[in-house]
Structures are given as structure tokens and as C-alpha cells.
Amino acid sequence: MRQLGQPTLGTVLCFVPAARVETNCQTCNYSQVRLNGLGGAYTQILINGRPIVSPLVALYGLDQFPTAMLDRVEVLKGSASVLYGSSAIAGVVNLITRDQWQSSASVNTTLSLIGGTAVEGTASAMLFLGTDDDTAPGLALIAHRRTRDGYDANNDGFTELANLRTTAVALEARAGDSIGTLHASIVVLNEERRGGNRLDEPPDHADQAEYRNHDIAFLTADYSYNLGNHELNAYAALNTTRRIHYTGVDQADGWGRTLSTSGIVGIQDMVAISHWNLSQVQLGIEHQFERTTDAIEAYGYAIDQRIGQTSIFAQATGKMGSQWTMLAGVRASWHSALTGAVILSRLGLLWKPSPWWDVRINYGEGFRAPQAFEADMHIAFASGGVSLIRIDPALRRETARSLTLSLTYRMGDDGRYCDVSLDGFASWLANTFVLADVGSDSNGNRILMRTNGSSARVAGITAELYSIWAPLEIMATATLQQSLFAEPVRWSNQVSPERRFLRTPDVYGSITLRVPIRQRWEVFATGVVTGPMLVPHMGIAGDRLVQTPPMMDCSITIRWRLTDQSSALGSLTLGARMGNIFNAYQQDFDRGRYRDSNYVWGPPQPRTVAVELEWTR
Questions:
Q1: Does the reported pTM lie above 0.70?
Q2: How far is CA 171 from CA 67, 98, 184, 187, 412, in A?
Q3: What is the reported pLDDT for 4?
Q4: S-S: 426 plus which of 72, 279, 459, 492, CB 3.0-4.6 Å?
């Protein structure tokens, strides 16, 4: 992950097979990750395995969470709702803050020039105290700072990349003995972002502006206890967010305040058994809660969402002979927005006919309750004013069934290794949540209604290659897919309804190539491909659907290790990077104060050059 040299989570996830990260706002630059052809709300983001990322944090979290604070990122594609919650329909993105505890220290700083005009700087410092022994205490302290100037791509005086100021601090601790381990972490983050024009003046003095000031905290605590063939795990996690925000055109009174708290408490028991062909049974009970209030009085916009969900779940794994492994799970959830229990199931089968071949099939179910999700809390500029999303009072539960089939072949010998996978995926949605144009309110604001549409189907295939042919290392992914509603969706009253999912290309993929040169030099090249897609444009002259051209974002990084770890100075590495080498960047941004801020597509930044310096000891 750190080899990519990217400061935030969103710029890393685009290299995950069947994953695509997109920016959805020209002014504030909120983003989302899409897995297996489904939108961001179908992917569950976890912090240390716990679903505590609120819909509000999910709006900007991919751009806020620094990679410096992550030990690794685990991505599980396909439905995983039985273990991780009802929204894990497309998959889960698990942010592991710390899993290695060897004593060390490091400092990393990067200076970038975006599009020849905007400067971005990041700096991170990390101190780890501990050993690999799980019973020994460990401590980690991480600090991160990021700043970015606003960037105006088309010289109209309004930014396409917002001005950013981010500060984050993380503290983690581990303590244990021969039978149990306690792991606790806290991450505190402040971010101020400002897009639009007149960046040196208050937001409500601008012709168009979005301003966000977030104070965010994540707290997680896990205690694992071993008792015979039982591994008990008790956990609690909390996410709190305070936000002051502004969204307005022509000095409108668009100020608002947000408070959000979400959390989870639970206990799990993993039992190792050897009866009835079973090898492991996992049992658990947990309670999730969320309270979000958000309002802009001048726009008649208000959300007061209180959600509670209690779940019990069980999952069993068993073997049939030496080649077959089966998995079956069930989850019962009682959601405060629904009546009665919702039962979800999961089935999996693994066949290993030889050490070189794996065949997997997985079926899972999930649902989305009638509540506000991340995009529903974003106020955009459209049609010369602002657009708001309202929740249909009659909104019904959306349900999903997902099926994945994977074929993997691996081979290797001294200095060579190859892993090739072919994954087919399909999801069937019922009572699909859609946005429908219902006109304007009394203030002239554009209103989009979150309501139920027809059923929908997403299906595709992903090919993945990972190969080491010493000294070369290559990873490549490609996805071909189709996402269709059973009946066309009228996203605008001015344009014919459309069956195809918007903002969803049929083809996308990525490639990374690492080439060590001698002992001290390294070249790291990447490419991200995004095929054509339909993007809505709600301009002041009217609405239209635009088919975007294909894009390929290519980057190259060269690093030189000046000194080794054995040196008295520690390891010192100098790097240079050019991102988006061919400047594959959107050329038809809307212009001026009355632009459609959601009309944005393609790579997140224009050509960018950067230098980096890293010290480790």
C-alpha cells in the first residue's frame, strides 16, 4: 500500500480487483468506492473489523483517512452480511490500523505540484514500541498533516479541487497474557475543506462555495480470550462527528451544523470442533446504533435519524474429505426502521482438486433499510441553484441476493510465482433505491426523491493476475460488467428514463509494475483504466446524459534508498513521482457560479509531480 506513495485511502483502493473509486462533486470532492458494479452505499467500510463508519463520514472518509495510519487494507468482495452487517452487499473494506508491533520509527514527507499551480504537502511521523509476541505490551503513536491548495482546472475562478487542511493523530495500545489480549485504538481527525471561489474570504461571501469543517473520532476496543477450544472476543467501537458546513450560491444563508454518533457493542465465540465434519463454528450477538442530526434552515433541509439494529448470527465451516470445504451462515436482524426480524443467509463452497487450483462459490443476502445514506446528506449545485435529496416517507426495504464464482490457478518455483483468478459475480436487487426528479420546492431548490424503483441486476467478470518473475512484480486486474434496472428510471423530468446505472462503466481495471534495480533503486509504475459511462448533467440550460470517453491514468515513481537500516542513520529513501502522466483529465467541467457540481468524472487529479523523503529506523 505504501509503495503507491498515495496519501489517502481512496487513491489506493482503485487498484483492488473489481473496485473503482470515483469523485462525485466538483466543489467539495466527496468520493465513494464501488465494488462489483454496485454503488458506494452497498459496500460496508470497517475500522478494525467493526462497522462504525457513519453515512456522514463515508461521504469524505476515503479522502480523509490517511494511509500512514493503516497497517493494511483488507477487501472482501461479494456479500458478507452474515458476519459484517446488512449493508455488506457488494463487499467490505476493512481498515486495519495496526497489526504489526515491532519497535521502529519513521518519518515521511511528500511535496506535490498539481496541474502546475496547486501545491499539496503531506507529512507523517510514526513510533512503534513492541514485539511480535502477542502477550507483550505494544504502543503505537502516529501523527499526520496534509495541506492542499485549491485547483482551478478551467480558469473560471472556481475550484475543481478543494482547498484542504487535515490533521490526524492516532494512538494504539496492546496488552496481553497467556490467555487473552486487549487491543485499543483511538483516531482523532480534523479536516477543513473549502471549494468554490474567493477562497480567502468567508464562504458566505463567495459567489459559490462549499465549506466543511469536520471533527471526527474513532475508538475501538477488542478483548480476545482463549478458553479451551473457545476463542471469545468482546468488542466495542464508537465514531463521533461534529461538522460545521456551508453550501450556497450568491451569498445565500447556507450554514448548517451536523452531529453524528454511531457505534457497536458485541461478543463472538469461535469454537473449534471436530464433529459431523465441522471444523469451526462462529456465534455472535451485537447491537449497532446511530444518531445523526443535520440541518440547513434556509433550505428547509433537516435530518434527524435514529437507528438501532440488534443481530444474532452463526456461521459454520466444515470439511468433506481433503478437497472440499463448506460454509453456511445465518443472521437475524431487528432494525428499528423495520417491523420484525430480517433473516439473511450465506452459503459457500471451496473445492481444491490440487495444490494449484481453487474453485469457490459463494451466495449471500443483504438489505438496506429505509434510511438516509451518504449521498443523501450531500447538497449539490444544479440547475443554477442547489439540489436536495428527500427520503420518500413510503420508502420500503431494499433487498439483495449475490452470487460469486471464482477460479484460481497458482504456480511457482524459485524466484517465480504466478496467481491467476477469474471471478464471476451477479447481484439481484429488489425494491431498488433510486433517485427520481420531483421538481422544485417553494425556494426554487431542485428536489430529488429517494424512492423505490424496479428490480435491478448487476453481473460481470473480473480477471486478476499477480506474478513475480524475479526481480519483476506485476499485478493486473480487468472487469467487464453490466448494471441494469428492470424498468427505466426517470432521474430527470427533462430526459427520457434510462435502464442503465448512471456513473457505472462496463469496463475498468488497473495495473501495477514494480521493478527493483540493483539493491538501492526501485521503479513503480501504475495505470488505472475507466471505460465510457453515462453521467447526468443538470446544467442551467437543462438536463442531459453525457457519455464520457475512456480514460487511463498512468503514473510512475522512482525511489533511491540512500542508506540501509543497518546504517547508524537508519534507512533514508528519496523518491520522485509523476502522476497522471498523459494528463487524462476531464475537459468539459461546468463553469461559473451556476455550475452543476455533480458533473464530474474521470481521474481525480490532473498531471501531478511530487518528491518524497522517508526515514525509517
A1: yes
A2: 15, 10, 8, 7, 40
A3: 61
A4: 459
